[in-house]
Amino acid sequence: MGKINSVGFIGLGAMGGGMVRNLLKGRIPVDCYDLMPAAIDAMVAEGASAATSPGAAAEHPDLVITMLPNATDVDAALDGADGILSIAANGRILMNCSTIDPFEARRLADKVQATGWRYLDCAVGRTATQAAEGKCLFILGGEAADKDAVRPVLADMGDTIIDGGDIGQASSLKIVNNYLALVSCLATAETLLLAETAGLSADAALQVINGTTARNGNTEMNFPNKVLSGDVTPGFPLMHGRKDLAIAVDVMQRMGVPSFLGEHALKAFDEAGERGHGLNDCSDILNMLASLQQENGKS
């Protein structure tokens, strides 16, 4: 395949919407689709073309990107009379950017490639804010020629492209990364609540933490910019974090890898979801812990 001249984009949520806007800034025509008409309208206002179905979004572009919550949603976009796979492949590429189980990534690849479409496993790192800024991190899995074909498109949406190896390995790398980030999210929340209960300010605690090896992305960026600033709008929704953490724990259990921290963190994320924090930023787990402390009669 030569230069990619147009893109079909399916899934216009917090990450997908930012990615499409940056494609349009790079002057790449985009046919877009989402289950929410308002999301399509927002992209049309930016210069994209509206599609009436996943298949319609895939009819003309050289590259079709799916940015959907899970593998079930990807299957729904692929299948049926209005699905992507109803459209003749003609050697074009489908690139799935959803965070999914590596087993599911390989299953989807087999399904897509059986119809003649080429397939890339492309996990996306960083937050919705960074997606809007064109600073996504991409992890590519698949054939070398297909990776080379999409690199210029990815460069319009991000500033880091990592070769993740074969299909499934890119998804594995994303799960590895998110496992540590999400376990660290809970650890950071517990640490900051401990500091507050000891009569310390969050600023003082973070000044010490970020000056030692205890620092991490949550202490340096996520918590200061989100929950500690009073902003719990989702840079990365807690419910999506719960989904990714559950995938990681499941993969670890299948592989016989001990997952003490992950299993306990998953319980905390479940509790946060049950208490109404699921649509908020992952850092809002701090407020969930604080409410539990109050219920226990301690402050």
Structure description:
The protein contains 13 helices and eight strands. Helix 1 (14-25) links the parallel strand 1 and strand 2 (30-33). The mean pLDDT is 96. Strands 3-2-1-4-5-6-7-8 form an eight-stranded mixed β-sheet, with helices on both faces. It is elongated, with a radius of gyration of 20 Å. The protein has helices at 14-25, 37-46, 54-58, 71-78, 102-113, 128-132, 144-157, 169-197, 202-209, 217-225, 238-255, 260-274, 285-295; strands spanning 7-10, 30-33, 49-50, 63-66, 93-96, 118-125, 136-141, 158-163. Helix 8 crosses helix 11 (238-255), helix 8 packs across helix 13 (285-295) and helix 11 (238-255) packs antiparallel against helix 12 (260-274). The chain is an alpha/beta fold and 299 residues long. 52% of the residues lie in helices and 13% in strands. The chain folds into two domains: 7-167, Rossmann fold (3-Layer(aba) Sandwich); 175-295, N-(1-d-carboxylethyl)-l-norvaline Dehydrogenase, domain 2.
Q: Could you give the topology of this structure?
A:
Elements: E1 7-10, H1 14-25, E2 30-33, H2 37-46, E3 49-50, H3 54-58, E4 63-66, H4 71-78, E5 93-96, H5 102-113, E6 118-125, H6 128-132, E7 136-141, H7 144-157, E8 158-163, H8 169-197, H9 202-209, H10 217-225, H11 238-255, H12 260-274, H13 285-295
Parallel strand pairs: 1-2, 1-4, 2-3, 4-5, 5-6, 7-8
Antiparallel strand pairs: 6-7
Helix pairs in contact: 4-5, 8-10, 8-11, 8-12, 8-13, 11-12
